[in-house]
Write a structure and sequence with these properties.
With 709 residues, the chain is of the alpha/beta class. Helices cover 43% and strands 19% of the residues.
């Protein structure tokens, strides 16, 4: 007897291949029925390109764990089986879905509802709502579901219409090559949604350049080696015969294509004829700016949607900076899909399910509101908490908030949405002007830990999840009070791009501080830049810890900042702040030696010892060439810290904002204690004599602001 589900799946597969579209089918039933339905279909397929994530692997599939869907990137399949009956991971799912090509089918074994509870979690309800939008086949109504699905089968379409699917990719390849043959200092930015062949274009262009130019050297960089696998794969295909040193290093005709991590590029400054930066939105903008200053022939590419990171916030901030410093830069967006045809059902469904699509009103209907926006307007706004029930009832509300988060934070991913819906400790606050979301925050409850657990944390034996700030403060700073106290950590904060610059972000944090009750302190942890440090300090947050290792994703050192909300927390925060400031200059000349100069400046302690007359006179003698650097080095450090504080000292008063006179050379030589030889190279001096001459001038500039009474 013919299996109706199997017959339907084969019919759907024929239509999918004709339309070059992808379709999803959800199997609702007991485990045995689900398994037999999938096995029956897979056994009759004439393809070995079957991938699976999650569950126990079916026979003949290429398998990846549910959280490791990224392992399938750069490869293609005709059928993707997703077994979510035990565990679901949104990031792994969205990544794996990118490997399913047009003409393929997605087979979903959905999460099981926990019968021991009276109701599903908000996350389960959200997933069920969206999985129900796919084609559904149920064990309990198999014949009816199949008949209904067969009747609603998508129509075969005229898919070609003379369209060259690779035309835009070919244009991108030529634009990459034009960066090499054209004028210097004219970077190219490629943007695309997933499946448009962006990374492939980089690999194809690299291969052609290596063939056409003997001894041509190309460096490709990205947040991770995994991200550039398609680049090297297409480069090897284009070259045919080449010397493959390893997975990320190819040699050809005396030239090479090799991977170098972003932080290594800035440290070692390797020579190359072309620098390709893939998934640039996931690299901090300060690092990208430094690359631009070092290399004159560059291509940046980034994904606009998806788990890789958002290219929209990147485009707004980085492209505006490029327009000032590299006005000849070019941009090109690849819109034509290569892996599937236009209007692919699963692409639209994925964007809808995980809120990856851009909300039109964020860009189209706000301009007229900006003319009337002012401080008075801000005072008329309200910060409101959005309940999860409200978000499920009004997905439009949730869509607007997550659109802002995806724009603002390259690390915002599909898992963040599911975490918000599933975790009762995570809350969302937003500010609205009529029906438009101007800004939002994701915050999470932490702390309130018992003494026995805190002891285990301080001994390094326990690290409970969901308590990032209290655990770090208790373990690294020995602060028991931080773990017993109640903390609210700001995980994400975002403001509509068109409404930035009006102080909405700081206003939201101020309102949050006033509204929350039974919370002792606020905290936030992020991959730090000088701009972010300045923002949080402007909202009365103090830096109390900096990570010694750079974050693998951001390439930045993570910084933890806190804000006291009552007198009790104010007391212990003052103590750990003093501890941080006392250790800071020691750290930046030791384990944090490679910290960027602007970051060193941004985190300079606010406390400072006053200078006495003898120290001031000694520094003036040095400026005039009278004594050595070593005789005044510690006094200059005191002068820098005193100047940065910007307040009256024991021996004088400050006539202007000192922090604007703290040169990079002063920071590097005195605070970071870099050798003269290092400073000569870093600041392009001819030698130590020229470097020290400039150093004396910088010290003189600080002293000139010090008017002794």
């Amino acid at each position: 007897m013919t299996n109706p589900t199997n017959t339907f799946l084969h019919s759907l597969s024929v239509i999918a291949q004709h339309n070059e579209h992808r379709y999803g089918v959800v199997f609702d039933g007991d485990v045995d029925w689900q398994n037999s339905a999938v096995v029956a279909f897979l056994q009759e397929l004439h393809t070995t390109n079957i991938f699976q994530i999650g569950g126990t692997p079916f026979e003949g599939v290429i398998y990846a764990p549910v959280k490791k869907g990224q392992q399938l990137l750069g490869r293609e399949c005709q059928v993707l089986v997703c077994d979510f009956r035990v565990q679901f991971d949104a990031n792994g799912f969205s990544a794996a879905l990118g490997s399913l090509v047009g003409g393929g089918l997605l087979l979903v074994l959905p999460p099981k509802v926990d019968d021991s509870t009276d109701s599903e979690s908000f996350g389960q309800r959200w997933l069920k709502f969206h999985f129900d939008k796919l084609i559904s086949v149920s064990q309990h109504n198999e014949a009816g579901d199949v008949a209904l699905a067969t009747h609603a089968l998508p129509q075969k379409q005229n898919v070609n219409n003379g369209l060259d699917k690779f035309a835009q990719q070919s244009t991108a390849v030529e634009l990459v090559k034009k960066v090499v043959s054209g004028h210097r200092k004219r970077p190219l930015i490629l943007t695309a949604d997933r499946g448009r062949g962006k990374s492939s274009a980089l690999g194809i262009a690299a291969a052609q350049l290596l063939v056409e130019r003997t001894g041509f050297n190309i460096i490709v960089s990205a947040p991770s080696v995994k991200a550039v696998e398609p680049v090297f794969s297409h480069a090897r295909q284009g070259l045919g015969v080449c010397d493959v040193v390893d997975a990320t290093h190819i040699r050809h005709q005396g030239g090479s294509l090799r991977f170098v991590a972003p932080d290594d590029i800035l440290k070692s400054k390797p020579d190359c004829d072309l620098l390709l930066v893939d998934e640039a939105a996931a690299i901090p903008i300060p690092m990208l700016k430094s690359m631009v200053s070092l290399y004159h022939r560059m291509v940046f590419s980034t994904t606009v949607h998806g788990y890789e990171g958002s290219g929209r916030g990147f485009a707004i901030k980085f492209e505006s900076w490029l327009s000032k410093h590299r006005p000849g830069w070019k941009g090109f967006k690849l819109e034509q899909p290569i892996r599937w045809n236009n209007n692919d059902p699963l692409e639209g469904w994925l964007f809808d399910c995980f809120l990856l699509g851009r909300h039109a009103s964020l860009s189209d209907s706000t301009t007229h509101q900006l003319d009337d926006f002012s401080d008075q307007t801000i005072n008329q706004l309200n910060l409101v908490e959005l309940s999860k029930a409200e978000c499920l009832a009004n997905p439009e509300t949730l869509q607007q908030c997550f659109s802002l988060l995806v724009d603002a934070h390259y690390q915002t991913s599909p898992n963040d949405l599911m975490q918000f819906l599933n975790n009762p400790a995570i809350h969302m606050y937003a500010v609205w002007q009529q029906d438009l979301c101007l800004g939002c925050m994701l915050v999470t409850e932490e702390g309130g830990l018992d003494s026995a657990l805190i002891t285990q944390i301080q001994l390094g034996k326990r690290r409970p999840q969901g308590h990032l700030a209290p655990v770090l403060l208790a373990n690294q700073l020995g602060c028991t009070e931080a773990a017993t106290s109640r903390c609210l950590r700001v995980m994400r904060i975002a403001v509509s791009t068109r409404h930035q610059g009006f102080g909405i972000g700081r206003w939201m944090l101020a309102q949050l501080s006033r509204q929350i009750t039974q919370v002792d302190y606020l905290a936030t942890s992020f991959g730090a830049s000088s701009e972010l440090i300045s923002f949080w300090r402007g909202s009365e947050f103090e830096a109390v810890h900096i990570g010694h290792q750079r974050d693998q994703a951001s390439g930045c050192h993570s910084v933890l900042m806190v804000k006291a909300l009552n007198s009790s927390s104010q007391c212990w925060i003052k103590q750990i702040l003093h501890h941080f400031e006392c250790n800071y200059c020691f750290l930046v000349s030791g384990s944090l030696f490679s910290l960027e100069t602007d970051m060193v400046r941004a985190l300079l302690p606010k406390s400072a010892e006053p200078l006495n007359d003898r120290e001031v006179q000694l520094m003036r003698n040095y400026v005039d060439g009278g004594n050595s650097y070593d005789s005044i080095s510690f006094s200059v450090l005191k002068l820098i810290l005193f100047s940065h504080r910007g307040r009256a000292g024991l021996q004088g008063t400050v006539s202007k904002a000192f922090r604007f006179t703290l040169s990079d050379l002063l920071i590097a030589k005195v605070v970071q204690q870099k050798p003269w030889a290092t400073c000569v190279v870093q600041f392009n001096f001819a030698g130590r004599k020229q470097a020290e001459l400039q150093f004396r001038k910088d010290v003189d500039a600080l002293l000139s602001n010090l008017h002794c009474k």
